[in-house]
Amino acid sequence: MEASIKTFITIAGFLLSSLANAGEPEARLEKLLNGLESYSAAFEQTSENNAGETTETAIGVVYMQRPGRIHWAYWEPYIQLIVSDGVSVWNYEEDLEQVIIRDASDSIEDSPAAVLGGKVDIEEHYIVLELGEEEGIEWLELTPKDLEAQYESIRLGFVNEELAGMVLNDGLGNRTNIKFLDTQANPKLADELFKFTPPEGVDIIDNRAQQDAAAPAAE
After folding, report:
1. Beta strand residue intervals within the chain, DSSP E
2. Does the pLDDT of residue 106 top 80, yes or no?
């Protein structure tokens, strides 16, 4: 389940990005994402291990709205809902009857998504390559310069300048392939999509409260 939240965080950063000071081909990436104030899509996700064997498949739907508002729902093989209002992130796993709450800024701090979310300078921390077109999809690849980054490479695929797919490769040889379907750029989205009230009876783990409690008292 933890892989799902990491995947969500990375994708959210990409889709809600606002790039600056970009060169070539960074400027190409900026052009493709420019003007994306909101986004919705269904998705199919496949996870593979380092032997190329499929370890998990999932389907769901995603809604996103700048700045930082996300509704990412897995329907199969389990129900998991990840919602962010831009300040907090709620991760609800139905089978565990559990909700984990995180601070949104802390959640993406160590992710490559932070770069495209405007947290760090893309040219300073990433090598961006245009990989060309394959099976009708135009691919861009980002390779982090930090050897301890969460992912070894992240590929974004576009069809007619609309985000159609993503491939995430981690340092252990695992790969996550995501195909976006029925995409809509800049749809009007209801505010309720980005609010979450935990169901009655579930366990709530509020890491925001733990962080606050651990903070030193002001003198």
Report:
1. 38-48, 54-65, 69-76, 80-85, 88-93, 98-103, 126-134, 137-144, 151-159, 162-170, 175-185, 203-206
2. no
